[in-house]
Every structure is written in structure tokens, then in C-alpha cells.
Amino acid sequence: MKKKLLLHACCAPCLMGTLPMIGGGFEISCFWYGANIHPYTEYRARLEALADYAGKNSINLIVRDYYGLAEFVRNTINDLKNRCAYCYRLRLEETAKQAKEGGFDAFSTTLLVSPYQNREKIMEIGEQCSESHGINFFCGDFRANFWQGQKTARESGVYMQKYCGCIFSEEERFLSKSY
């Protein structure tokens, strides 16, 4: 019997890059929790693209539909340099909790496909969430398939975002400014 993996999916293109790297050893369900994604139109666009992709590919998708702009800004505004760590923890905590409650054997995240994310920090936080929730964290290295996932999404006409997700990363996109 295959082990059940709950895979946090940040967006459809990253999911497209991650799934082929996991292999057939797991029964995979995806989990959407994007309280970090702003503005609301971006949040909806990413969720709709992910739900459409999951539906067309018979992927079980669990959605925690919570748009958390006020909470996210309140918890990051005084330490913008460390907002990514907060963002990783926000999503991995919720995924670990959902995985434990849902009877999964492990959890992971599509954030591990991106060469633009801090892999070491994601792994560190994933392990902490694993310990605190009593569920395994599967921390595969999916980065080798990032560009293929992007290409597949582009060729399939799947919505592709232009920035990481938070309102501050959108600002950086336009201003090329680093906090």
C-alpha cells in the first residue's frame, strides 16, 4: 500500500514541476493554503489555476480558502528581511496540521522545486513542523525539474504568476528593491 503524502501546492506551475520528481511511491493529495498571496486578484488567479489543473489531472485537492492579508502584513511588517521564513512557517505549519488530522503519512511542499526559494530554511522549518505535529516531512530536491514545470505550464496555457506571492515581493518585482 502506498504511503499518503499531503503536498502543499503554492501554484500550478510549481506543482507541474514537482509531481514528476516525487515518483510513484506516494498517493498524493495537494493542499492549497495561500494566506501569503496578495492582492486578492492574484490569490484567486493562482487558486483557480491550481484547481483547474488538479481537476483535469484527477488530483485530489484540499483547499483552505483563507485570504490573510491583514494577518500576513501584521506579522511581517516590522521584519521584512525575514518575511520569507514567516511565510514558509505559515504554510508548512498549516500543511503539517492538515496532514496529521487527515491521516497522511507525510507532508511536503512545492516550494522545494523553486531555485528562488531558500531550500535550507524550508527544510529546517519543515523538520520543525514535523516534530511539533508528529508527522514526517518529505524534503525531496525537486529543483532539477523547475524549468520543465514552467515550460509545461506555459505550453498548456496555465496561469503563471510574475512574483513569489506576497505584496512585498510584488513591489520588488516592479522596483527591483531588496529589503
Question: Helix and strand layout, with pairings?
Answer:
Elements: E1 3-8, H1 12-22, E2 26-32, H2 40-56, E3 60-63, H3 69-76, H4 83-101, E4 106-109, H5 119-133, E5 136-137, H6 146-156, H7 167-175
Parallel strand pairs: 1-2, 1-4, 2-3, 4-5
Helix pairs in contact: 1-6, 4-5
Structural account:
There is one protein chain. The chain has 179 residues and is α/β, with parallel strands linked by helices. The chain has a single domain, classed as Rossmann fold (3-Layer(aba) Sandwich). The chain is built from seven helices and five strands. A five-stranded parallel beta sheet has the order 3-2-1-4-5, with helices on both faces. α2 (40-56) links the parallel β2 and β3 (60-63).
Summarize the structure.
The chain contains seven helices and five strands. It has 179 residues and is of the alpha/beta class.
List keywords for this structure.
179 residues; alpha/beta; Rossmann fold; 5 strands
Count of DSSP E strands?
A: 5
Counted by DSSP, the helix tally is 7
Helix content: 40-55%
Question: What is the number of independent domains?
Answer: 1
Which structural class should the secondary elements be placed in?
alpha/beta
How much is the average pLDDT? 94
Low-confidence stretches: none
Beta-strand proportion: 5-15%
Distance between the termini: 47 Å
| Shape category | globular
Give the biggest beta sheet.
5 strands, parallel
Identify the strand order in the major beta sheet: 3-2-1-4-5
By CATH, the superfamily comes out as: HUPs
CATH architectural grouping? 3-Layer(aba) Sandwich
CATH topology: Rossmann fold
CATH class: Alpha Beta
Which value, in Å, is the CA radius of gyration?
15 Å
Order of helices and strands: EHEHEHHEHEHH
